[in-house]
Amino acid sequence: MRKLQTVAIAAASCVCVLAVAPRPAHALISEAAVVAAIKALQSFTGNALNTMTKNLTDSIDSNLTSLTNPNSVASLLTKGFTQTANYAKAQVGAQSQLIDAQDAAMAGFLRRQQETEIRDEHMMSPEFCAGLDAQQSTIAASKASRSAVIAITKITDPRGEAKKGTPSYYGKSQGSDALTSLHLRRYCSSDDVDAGLCTAVSQNPDADQHAASFFASDTLSADGGVDAANDYATTLIQPIAPAALRGEQMTSIRGREVATRRRSYNSRMSLARWVAAYVTSLGVPSVTLTSDQKAEMTAQGQQPLEKASWLQVMALEVGRRVSSVAWNASLQKMPPASLLREIATEMAQSNYLALQNYRLGLYQATMSATRIAQEEEAAFRDGLTPMPSPTINP
Fold it and tell me: Confidence band (pLDDT; 50, 70, 90) for 337?
């Protein structure tokens, strides 16, 4: 292209020179010939330039834009763009496959995670199973303690009423002798030995007058602990029962009043002995402990027992949630559902204990009402002025 421009400029220069050159005086060529020559030169130059321009344009077009020329820029660019497009399409396809595979893998992972969560939500933890076993033991022990209360009061109530076959049936002196004989047989102390009342000190000397027989252990031993608690309650509440009323003591007018007061006395003693028997029954060994409960007793520094009481089972269950390392470690790893179940279990246990406290509150309220009635009766009797007995003429 640069060469073509150079030739065109040279030709134009020649034409210009020819056009302005003065005609020599001696010229043999006519002016018409010169003009014709110039026109011919211009025509030749123009054709040559046109041909050269066309050839050059065709060559440029062939080298730049012709798609039939495999070496043209357009062909090379087309091939390059085509290859790039192919690469892009292949990349899109590969990315689609990668994304599809990633989505499938993520879906599988999320599904497995959901299945794991569902499994964890519905699977009971070992701590929950241990708690359920303890709750079953609690209910069984509660039933046994209620039976123990009834069994104890079936013995203490007739004794306090001086029924036939009881120590005080024939009088207070016989009741006193019976209680002394029981003390020397079961709870002989060194003082008793020194006084010559018994020959050897018992295993539990004076246990019938020590509060430790009542409260020292959550589970009373079956080989004397329950008897010691009952005997302590007897010494505490009604060591000697009054003799029973007989014959005219019950049929006379004065005897009827005395019998009424005796029934009131018996009812108050029965209430007091019922509460004492209830406390004793909570420590009566009644249920077999599980391996987890025995392990908890060991962890709390106690000697494991084969059979335990209601109070012992409840104390172990409460202590397990306070000091057990295993329970607290499991609590940290529990899924939400297991944690909610554990909270529900503790709420149920709290409600159960609240019911037991309510029952004990009924006993205490009844005893308070009885005490008020006794005080008011004494105040009323002391405040009365004796009225003279009327004289009735026959």
Answer: confident
Q: Is residue 113 part of a domain?
A: no
Same domain, 54 and 137: no
Can you tell me the distance from the alpha carbon of 131 to that of 122, in angstroms, rounded to the nearest whole number?
Answer: 17
Give the residue among 314, 303, 297 at the shortest CA–CA distance from 137. 314
Taking the model in full, what pTM does it have? 0.67
Total domain count for the chain? Answer: 2
Q: DSSP per residue over 320-378, as a string?
A: HHHH-HHHHHHHHH--HHHHHHHHHHHHHHHHHHHHHHHHHHHHHHHHHHHHHHHHHHH
In the predicted structure, residue 70 carries a pLDDT above the cut 70: no
Instruction: Please indicate, yes or no, whether residues 174 and 320 belong to a single structural domain of this protein.
Output: yes
The reply to whether 23 and 141 lie within a common domain is no
Question: CA-CA distance, 301 to 305, in Å (whole number)?
Answer: 12
- Does some domain include residue 238? yes
The answer on 28 and 174 residing in a single domain is no
Domain end marker among 333, 352, 373: 333
Q: Determine which helix (DSSP H) or strand (DSSP E) holds 288, and give its type and residue range.
A: strand 287-288
CA dihedral of residues 366, 372, 377, 380 (deg, nearest 10): -150
Strand partners, 288: 307
Rounded Cα–Cα distance for residues 183 and 208 (Å): 7
> 117-139: b or e for each residue (b if 16 or more CB lie within 10 Å)?
eeeeeeeebebbebbebbbebbe
State which residues form the domain around 18: 2-60
- How is residue 228 annotated by DSSP? H
Question: Which structure tokens are listed for 388?
Answer: 């003279």
What is the distance in angstroms between the CA of the first residue and the CA of the last residue of the chain?
Answer: 174
To the nearest 10 degrees (0 to 180), the angle between helices 325-333 and 126-160 is 140
Return the CA Rg of the chain. 60
How far, in Å, CA of 348 to CA of 359, rounded?
17
Q: Is 78 a member of any domain?
A: no
The C-alpha atoms of residue 210 and residue 198 are separated, in whole angstroms, by: 19
pLDDT, tens digit, 9 for 90 and up, residues 181-202: 999 999 999 999 999 999 999 9
Is 43 a domain residue?
yes
Task: Point out which residues pair with 287 in neighbouring strands.
Answer: 308
